[in-house]
Amino acid sequence: MLMRATARNLSLLRLCSVYYQSTAAVAVEPVRNPDIAYTQIFINNGWHNSASGKTFPTVNPTSGEVIAHVQEGDKADVDKAVQAAKKAFELGSEWRTMDASDRGILLNRLADLIERDRCLIASLETLDNGKPFVDAYNIDLPLVIKCLRYYAGYADKNHGKTIPLDGSYFAYTRHEPVGVCGQIIPWNFPALMQAWKLGPALAMGNTVVMKPAEQTPLSALHVASLVAEAGFPPGVVNVVPGMGPTAGAAIAAHRDVDKIAFTGSTEVGQQVMKTAAKSNLKKVTLELGGKSPNIVFKDANLDEAIETSHFGLFFNQGQCCCAGSRIFVEGAIYEDFVARSVTLAKQRVLGDPFDANTTQGPQVDQEQLGKILALIDSGKSEGARLLCGGARHGSRGYFVEPTVFSDVKDGMRIAREEIFGPVMQILRFENIGELIERANQTKYGLAASLFTQDLEKALHFSSGIKAGTVWVNCYDVL
């Protein structure tokens, strides 16, 4: 799908501020030490230990300490989950014979329960992922609820068409559910990615076998408990926590899984596609990495461009697949843009993500911390100018200082590889004629943005950039 989003004074940054303003009057305290009630595998609306007896630790990235041990599903557990989903999808089953409008009622009921448990789920996200509670509560969870309500309303509005044929023939199309859907979700927006996967699949009458990221299983398991409470029939939703090479690979390879949807790294996505093709040629949906160009022209509203570019890179600790991580700035405004971007980066508050004053939490785990620091080192060694940050913050937890590089060249690793962290790279351009070629000089094609007050320029460059979503004078508008 190709989408072009334009706005003069709208960005998710402003949408986020609306969330904060709307909840400012409500004193919502996070649950700093939530009771971890669900650590097992969810199959047939019930809780089960892993067939192997294995567990794995889920770690608090703020401290590096273990939160809980979670049952580690593998192929045997995936087999059980798939069989449950397959049975729930059988012709004549409760789920297959349910009215589409009733599926919508169940999705709305699930949204109601998530709204009821909003504070707890946001607290689990903060504990397990490290994102600031104010973001989880005011941004992620409202978007989860809106997503489920959207698909609840769409459940009985998806239909086929009649086709006029020559002669005395009658033809029609009918939209039917695919069947058993395997879903593998990432760790950067655990609850939101779960909603994005569950909403459309359930609205259309499919059944689901989901593997949450091993770094962040807790909110997905809590939502699984709400699936049963909402009244979904057994087997419609199954959640198998586990590792990618075992549980994830088993879902991708399973011959009774009719479709797989994966959000994560490009490298793993390639493996998912290969495995899906080798098994039963199941349908595949992939949403992978990005190195999105963010182009700021000299005629842009500079205040808004700087503020929105900062948000587009640093939001969620930089752990966004669509982060605007290659910022091209026209030479006439380059130094001003760089200096003010450094000022904003230095104003970020790192610390306890449960503290309302914190604006940046830790990275999700030790592996991500090491990867980010290695890429920062490459930027320094390849000649980019480090203006702030560039190191680990503190000795406890997985914090990275907000980092800004200027004088970045197209061939540098930090300009080519997805960093997935709070590292801003600012490139200069003088020649507009070569800008589209430079922006498209990447293996990714997820998103892009432009900042300009020239409509002709906006239309020309947005059509020339190879990206699924192009934002104009805004970022992350979804």
Structure notes:
Keywords: NAD, Oxidoreductase, Signal. The active site is at 287. Its EC number is 1.2.1.3. Residues 47-475 form the Aldehyde dehydrogenase domain. The chain has 2 domains: 3-17 and 290-472, Aldehyde Dehydrogenase, Chain A, domain 2; 38-287, Aldehyde Dehydrogenase, Chain A, domain 1 (3-Layer(aba) Sandwich). 41% of the residues lie in helices and 17% in strands. It has 16 helices and 19 strands. It has helices at 12-23, 75-88, 94-97, 100-116, 118-129, 133-154, 190-203, 218-230, 244-253, 266-279, 302-314, 331-346, 366-381, 413-416, 435-439, 455-464, and strands at residues 3-6, 41-43, 46-48, 55-60, 65-71, 162-163, 171-172, 180-184, 207-211, 237-239, 259-263, 283-287, 293-296, 326-330, 385-388, 403-406, 423-429, 447-451, 469-472. Helix 5 (118-129) packs across helix 6 (133-154). The chain is globular and about 65 Å long. Mean pLDDT is 95; it is low at 6-15 and 17-26.
Distance between the termini: 13 Å
Biggest sheet: strand arrangement: 1-19-18-13-14-17-16-15
In the predicted model, the low-confidence regions spanning at least 5 consecutive residues are 6-15, 17-26
Largest sheet: 8 strands, mixed
**Fraction of residues in helix:** 40-55%
Which structural class should the secondary elements be placed in? alpha/beta
CATH domain fold name of the largest domain: Aldehyde Dehydrogenase, Chain A, domain 1
Shape: globular
Can you tell me the CATH superfamily of the largest domain? Aldehyde Dehydrogenase, Chain A, domain 1
Report Rg: 23 Å
